[in-house]
Amino acid sequence: MDFLRELWAFMRARKKLWLLPIIIVLLLLGGLIVFVQGSALAPFIYTIF
Amino acid sequence: MWILGLSAYYHDSAAALIRDGEIVAAAQEERFCRVKHYPGFPTQAVRYCLREAGITLDDVDWVVFYEKPFLKFERLLETYHAFAPLGFRSYVKAMPVWLKEKLFQKRELTQSLRALAPHFDAKRLLFSEHHLSHAASAFYPSPFERALILTMDGVGEWATTSVMMGEGRLIRPLKEIHFPHSLGLLYSAFTYFTGFKVNSGEYKLMGLAPYGEPVYADLIRQHLIEIEGDGSFRLNMRYFDYCTGLTMTNRRFDRLFGRGPRRSEAEITQMDMDLARSIQSVTEEVVLKMAAALRREYGIGNLCLAGGVALNSVANGKLLQSGLYDGLWIQPAAGDAGGALGAALAAYHLEHAGERVQHEARDGMRGAYLGPAFTDAEIMRELDRLGARYHPLNESELVDRAARAIADGKVIGWFQGRMEFGPRALGARSILGDPRSPVTQSLMNLKIKYRESFRPFAPSVLSEDCAEYFDLASDSPYMLLVAPVTAARRRELGEAERGIRGLDQVHLARSNIPAVTHVDYSARVQTVHADTHPLYHALISRFKQLSGYGVIVNTSFNVRGEPIVCTPQDAFRCFMNTAMDELYIGGLRLIKTEQIIDPDRVPPAVLPGLD
């Protein structure tokens, strides 16, 4: 819950509420990918995050 | 007030501890866990910092993380959104990492801290911004009351280049360039394209540059980067893949240069050298134009640098030579490890209004000797356990024997005092040699460091003798400035020698200190000062008495692919697995020929391989 509260506060402070629907869709899709794939290793030549 | 700064979960995890704004200890986790650029939580580095201060985590008032994970996530989402539907493959690979780990960094940090102190309160955890952390690490330890701060790197949250103003205890942001336009990532794209590993091979690219000509610089300016008069820039993203793909560059980039990326095991060609020289020249152009424009715009005569691009000592040297600024100070841990230190300093001065500390020395970094030291008793205990044979010496004997060994052409390990913070070995964890010998460079590269023969070595010179060898108008205690070897020291090449091209140039002696003179007559200088490392200064002074030269070769105490050694055990293992002749560790001298190799006691170091 703390996490969601902080994420909400972050979006309000940054005036990025428009990101919310994108986040929800991406999280759902992302959740599905995580569920299907199960690995958290990123094979990037260089990760930018 | 005790503040612990942390850098983790990206590259180069580190911890730094400050007390009332004064730096007490700082170290990178890779040195303890022996995995280069280790990205996990820096547990052992934190433990070390607390031990050094004689406190526990419960005594620490604040813990500060060096960047803001939510801002990074925002950048990631907006980037995918901007490029959609491109980038789906990258998204599929990136999202699990975020949903499983990165988005919950606060929880992960709290859990890791609670493993060290079960009652750690998450309210004591603060988050700085990536570039503010860099800027704070560059400004607060600097000797300047007022300075401009320029930080450039690959990317943090959004910023890739930041300009800030430091005055007293305050830092004020002035302007930024945002992702995806990044000088660091442009340099890294060429690191990748020339077959080196991104995020560690940039030094190699910089070392390779003098072998080439800047024949592609115009092509880079025409197609890849648009540089304005004030040094600000935009990249043409049609040529890069890092926003949406798994690589740095794309096929359009390949077509522009008429080939694909070099495979790491393939031979380095003249084209790779020319590409290295070209991107180096474009990088210098951006740094110099930006520095000049800032000088004009704000009229401030001091400049502080940090961020990965500030480790480009060739560009730094050009900036110094330009005379644009009266004072230039570069954070020795300019990469992400230094962010740990900056985060702690930013919290102290900005969040808690702590006043600046007046430094008695030339800056607040204590020569960057901020890591662990070992007593002779501890070293002997460890060496006994490993079955090593050693000779205890008093300090003057130690200095004399070590200097004589170097003067006799031997290569020695030098493990003395507190370990350095940052990527450079500065005489605490160093391998040393004779700069006069024309064979030192290839011997040290191939038999000791097990690395590419083209890579140059750096000189450690007595600060008072620097002008005799190098045209350098400033101290360079952190080996972050490249300067030309003086004309009087140079040796002109003969007719036949001038015809030699490519990597074979490495065998040509270009001065009477050939081991530290690169093919363009330059050297990455470390000036050694009696007040920051008296023993190291004494060693070079003794070498000067014996040889007439107040300069020696200094390279980091490790082999290729391995972090710099931290403990006596690491040092002994590295010593035994390379062609080093002698090791001077604390007050002890070890001679290679006296050692009995017992594979059960001294497991082989990471075998030299390609990295």
Describe the structure.
The complex is a heterodimer of chains A (49) and B (611). In chain A, 63% of the residues lie in helices and 0% in strands. Chain A has 49 residues and is an all-alpha fold. Chain A has a domain at 2-35. The longest helix of chain A has 19 residues, at 19-37. The mean pLDDT of chain A is 81. Chain B is 36% helix and 18% strand. In chain B, the strands form four sheets. Chain B has a nine-stranded mixed beta sheet, with helices on both faces. A five-stranded mixed beta sheet of chain B has the order 3-2-1-4-5. In chain B, helix 7 (183-193) runs antiparallel to helix 11 and helix 15 crosses helix 19. Chain B is globular and about 65 Å long. The relative contact order of chain B is 0.12. Residues 606-611 of chain B have low confidence and may be disordered. Chain A binds chain B through residues 3, 6-7, 10, 14, 16, 19, 22-23, 26-27, 29-31, 33-34, 37-49, and chain B through 10, 70-78, 80-81, 90-104, 106-107, 154-155, 179, 185, 188, 192, 198-199, 242-243, 246-248.
What is the terminal separation of chain A in angstroms?
24 Å
CATH fold name of the largest domain in chain B: DHBP synthase
Query: Sheet with the most strands of chain B?
Result: 9 strands, mixed
In oligomeric terms, what are we looking at? heterodimer
Strand content of chain B: 15-25%
Per DSSP, what share of the residues of chain A sits in E-state strands of 2 or more residues?
Answer: under 5%
Q: Are there runs of chain A of 5+ residues with pLDDT below 50, and where? A: none
- Taking the alpha carbons of the first and last residues of chain B, their distance comes to 42 Å
Compressed to H and E, one letter per element, the order of chain A equals HH
